[in-house]
Amino acid sequence: MTELTxxxxxxxxxxxxxxxVDIYTAEELRQTGSxxxxxxxxxxxxxxxxxxxxxxxxxxxxxxxxxxxDEVKRDLKAFCDGFQ
Length: 84
Description:
This protein is mostly helical. The protein is built from five helices and no strands. It has helices spanning about 10-20, 25-30, 35-45, 50-60, 70-80. The longest helix has 12 residues, at about 50-60.
């Protein structure tokens, strides 16, 4: 099992938040997906925002969150907007 902090974009603070919503490893984050992980985080931490969602997707895709393709960003933004 791979630690969450071994993933790009995931630091100690995000790791702690993910563990609080029952995501403990990199494999679990990949299996859960960025949208479901974000949904869980948003319910527990209402102040999480679109950048957190980008961060999660970037971690899964092994790229900086600011390097996500525009199409992916649009999809994630539409998903995030559904929580506001």
